[in-house]
UniProtKB/TrEMBL annotation:
Signal peptide: none annotated. Pathway: Amine and polyamine biosynthesis; betaine biosynthesis via choline pathway; betaine from betaine aldehyde: step 1/1. The gene is betB. GO terms for molecular function: oxidoreductase activity, acting on the aldehyde or oxo group of donors, NAD or NADP as acceptor. Keywords: NAD, Oxidoreductase. The lineage of its organism: Bacteria, Bacillati, Actinomycetota, Actinomycetes, Mycobacteriales. Coiled coil: none annotated. It comes from Mycolicibacterium madagascariense. This is Betaine-aldehyde dehydrogenase. The active site is at 251.
Length: 493
């Protein structure tokens, strides 16, 4: 960063082989906050080779579980020691508020602590095969060389959801953060080095997916790819990896319904629908972007939302008065604006927002205000496609079956919320929704111990929880006969 090498290959910090660099921009004011090395294809290939060598010839895959767990705990300690520094980097790079970045570092810490405990207790399985001379065991082994590709909305958090279980399982890896937001990951890899991660176990390259994609994903030396990002990229990676039959887990965002029944508790429902969609300016894969509200309360509910949305304070994430920051980049704001224009042309009724803020203090940043559209339906792109911005659409229903139908009427399936004071109905609806996480009378929360991932086009595989560790493990069945004897099938006569 700023002259220091930023690529970490085989335990050494190096510059890009072709001298490439990229300016990193603070989206709150458009200023360049750092210049980092931008890897070339050859750098990514070196990184995969280093990870391969560390897996095939290094000690890490067979390091005792207790040592791996101790390393994860040390990483958690260092995260807390450097919490403020990491949070500031994250805020300046992504635009999110400092309060949110601090929460991210705490969450990341809890993920390392969780896997530090879990790797020690996940036991092998002994299977009874009906023959007392046979000891049959099912054991878990590290899957091998992992490529970890993260997006820009939660750079440190998304990468840690991958690195923690990968390290815990005994894998080696190449991490590639988004080229838009590499800073916290670079700082984090310095922490991993300090914590004692052996050379070659974690390698880091940053740069454009288009340039590095082939080396990282179309590569027979890679055993597993964990990707979080957009649907189009997830499809490409899955297709390319299939050529090598490489295992892939992808988390590809969502178009998440938040269903509000007329009997829902009013204050918390208004508040959480608002937070669920406008937190981090809607740049959240599980953002509740589709409000599906019972007709009898819809007008009043939407009016209350508009009133609250117009009071949200936008500003630089470093300013404690800011409740939400800018979009991550000018390029991303252009995408959001294009979606809004299409929504208006398709007949959605704009209630608030819908154009850049006029406050001169926000003019240099890529800010976009909370925006609400009423009168929406599935024929509209704004209801079907992920915008990844502060846009809420409103659809109405009159029966429970209709609410469930609308909630499932999406090609995605990452997350959903249901709000009702009728417990039996709550249970019926959460079970009927085809989404990876469903919140009942709450929204947006997760824990390291519970799986996270999508149904349908929101992806496959899971992060967090025991399944998040299992993704990084191969399963081996060991059949051991303690009293060897002939099979007796071919008689030899
Ligand atoms: O994502 P990309 P983008 C959605 C959101 C957003 C859209 C596009 O709707 O507007 O995706 O965002 C790397 N081989 N989400 O273009 O391209 C890339 O460098 C290997 C949802 O920023 O998918 C980055 O590190 N890697 C999401 C990562 O993929 C490649 C969070 C994600 O970038 C690659 C972010 C390739 N061919 C955006 N091409 C979520 N699920 O939370 C790109 N990359």
């Amino acid at each position: 960063m700023n002259g220091e090498p930023d690529l970490f290959v085989g335990g050494t910090w190096v510059h890009a082989c072709d001298g490439g660099t990229r300016d990193v921009v603070n989206p709150a004011d458009g200023s360049v906050i750092a210049t980092v090395d931008e890897a070339a294809d050859a750098d990514a290939r070196d990184a995969v080779r280093a990870a391969r060598a560390a897996f095939d010839d290094g000690a890490w895959p067979a390091t005792p579980v207790a040592e791996r767990a101790a390393l994860l705990d040390r990483i958690a300690d260092l995260l807390q020691r450097d919490k403020e520094e990491l949070a500031v980097l994250e805020t300046r790079d992504t635009g999110k508020t400092l309060a949110e970045s601090r929460i991210d570092v705490d969450d990341v810490t809890s993920v390392f602590r969780y896997y530090a405990k879990l790797v020690g207790v996940e036991a092998d399985r002994v299977v009874d095969v009906g023959d007392p001379t046979v000891i049959s065991r099912v054991v878990r082994e590290p899957i091998g060389v992992c490529v970890l590709i993260a997006p820009w909305n939660y750079p440190l958090l998304q990468m840690s959801w991958k690195i923690a279980p990968a390290l815990g399982a005994g894998c080696t890896m190449v991490a590639k953060p988004s080229e838009v937001t590499p800073l916290s990951t670079i700082a984090f890899v310095h922490l991993l080095e300090e914590a004692g991660v052996p050379p070659g176990v974690v390698n880091l390259v940053q740069g454009s997916g288009a340039v590095l994609g082939a080396a990282l994903t179309d590569n027979a030396d890679v055993d597993f790819i964990s990707f979080t990002g957009g649907l189009a990229t997830g499809r490409t990676i899955s297709r390319v990896a299939a050529e090598h039959v490489t295992k892939v887990a992808v988390e590809l965002g969502g178009k998440n319904p938040h269903i509000v029944f007329a009997d829902a508790e009013w204050e918390s429902s208004v508040d959480q629908v608002l937070t669920g969609v406008f937190l981090h300016s809607g740049q959240v894969c599980s953002a509740g972007t589709r409000l599906i509200v019972e007709e009898s309360i819809a007008d009043d509910f939407v009016a209350a939302l508009v009133e609250r949305a117009e009071k949200i304070r936008m500003g630089d994430g470093m300013d404690p008065a800011s409740e939400t920051g800018p979009l991550v980049s000018e390029q991303h704001r252009a995408k959001v604006e294009a979606h809004v224009a299409t929504a208006i042309s398709e007949g959605a009724k704009l209630l608030t927002g819908g154009s850049r803020p006029t406050d001169p203090a926000l003019a240099a940043g890529s800010f976009y205000p909370p925006t609400i559209f009423d009168g929406c339906d599935r024929s509209m792109a704004i209801v079907r496609e992920e915008t990844f911005g502060p846009i809420l659409t409103v659809e109405r229903f009159t029966s429970e079956a209709e609410a469930i139908g609308l909630g499932n009427d999406t090609e995605y399936g990452l997350a959903a919320g249901v709000r009702t004071s009728d417990a039996a109905r709550g249970e019926r609806v959460v079970r009927a929704l085809r989404h990876g996480t469903v919140w009942l009378n709450d929204f947006g929360y997760y824990t390291a111990a519970a799986e996270w991932g999508g149904f349908r086009k929101s992806g496959n595989g899971r992060e967090l929880g025991p399944t998040g560790l299992a993704e990084y493990q191969e399963i081996k069945h060991i059949w051991h006969n303690t009293a060897p004897k002939s099979a007796g099938w071919f008689t030899g006569e």
